[in-house]
Amino acid sequence: MQPAELRAGGLAEGAQDLDARRDPRQGEQRAETRAEDGKRRGARTSKSGSRQRDGAERGGPGQDEGHAVELREHAADQIRGGDALPAPRRKRGDLARKRGRRGDRREEELTAEEQSDREPEEVSEEAAHEAVFALPWSTVQGNLPAPAHPPFQARCAGAEDLAGLVKREAAALGFDLCGIARAEPLDPARFDRWLDRGWDGPAIAYVRERRAERLDPSLLLPGARSVIAVAASYAPDLPEPRATGELRVARYAQGRDYHNVLLKPARKLAAYLRAELGARVYCEVDTGAMLEKEWAQRSGIGWIGKNGCLIHPQLGSWLLLGALVTDLDLATDAPHPDRCGDCALCIPACPTGAIVEPRYVEAQRCLAYHTIEHRGPIPEELSRKAEGRVFGCDACQEACPWNRRAPGGKLVSLRARPEQRALSLLETLSLTAAEAKARFTGTPLLRAGRDGLVRSAVAVAKRPLPRQARDLLRGLVNDPAEGVRAEARRALSETEA
After folding, report:
1. Could you tell me the pTM of the whole model?
2. Measuring CA to CA, which of 26, 227, 306, 350 is 20 to 30 A from 363?
3. 286 catalytic, yes or no?
4. Domain definitions of the chain by residue range
């Protein structure tokens, strides 16, 4: 587009042409004047261009010296002459920022099953993002290259300043807590005790399979120097409204799927570390090979309570965690001290006795394991004590005194949906796979799927079952899902005995 002076000059020349048609002699005089003005402008332009070329050859102002370009005011004669203003050259920081956005998709990815659980608008949004920024790189998930030249502030700032930048960015992205620990191998004693006692389970065999990576962050990111732990609260607003359904849902599963909700800001934080601080980053939210609670305690944002949950003195244990490993040297926080003291209310509160020792939960006695991870029939000795808990269990957290005054969580997407706080027994027994997907896509409940929800509903529903439920059970005794068949036959045999 032409400068304003040239556009105005063009309008003036048009007016002069009109005058010339009226008075030919006046038009000839004005044409001569314009020709002389044009020669003078050409001479100035040639001289100015020569000065710029000389400056560039000498490496003078205006040449790109690495990370910044000196922007200077242009001389008045250049502007009057109508020379186009030179566009500032792109800074390296801009290039790093672009690389960070492109690489943003390469942190710890959701599994294909979890991807399919997203709400339609979320999937389409990410698909559009990847269509623009996808790169055909085949590196380890999360182990991303840093920009070739770290940005200026990363090279000049100290460990304390960098840690402050990271925490401010985490807060701006919506995290309630952020702490930093030194990236070093963890003491394997506690984790190995849990594995050696067989307190894990077949449905979570992946935990045992990646033991080495869980204990050493440098196996996830070579050259790791710091671990950043982040947390977001999903605490309910008090007082909670009374749920209407017979089947209870754990609080973390009453809203959107937290994997999707927290992974977005975690990825944005990782992108910030790459683009602005020149770091390499491994990022995950509960789906990667990290012991998030161990790192959260080490980074000072809470302590591991006797129920195995991370507890914060103000936010309680209603916390969802994420972790990032980076090669940045960041100032670390002091580990959080244990503040459970003599309190052990959570241990007897567990309906199935799954807390076998303080801070040790036997998965195969835990209702959350059986209603979420396990796919077969639920042991009868456990299902009879479930008291209608169809997906997860909050009993040990409800007993914890630190949760009595925890403020409600800030992330709207994690807030409970009224229809998801508890489920109707009859509606759940009538679910089809298509109905379950339509209703629960984008929520944690789809992890269990139709088969898992129906199986758990039959197993944990309070006895005696109503007549309508028994009628539905007769149609489930030949269900394709093994767990559904087994629970339906057992429930009918109880009622008919």
Report:
1. 0.70
2. 227
3. yes
4. 352-386+424-496
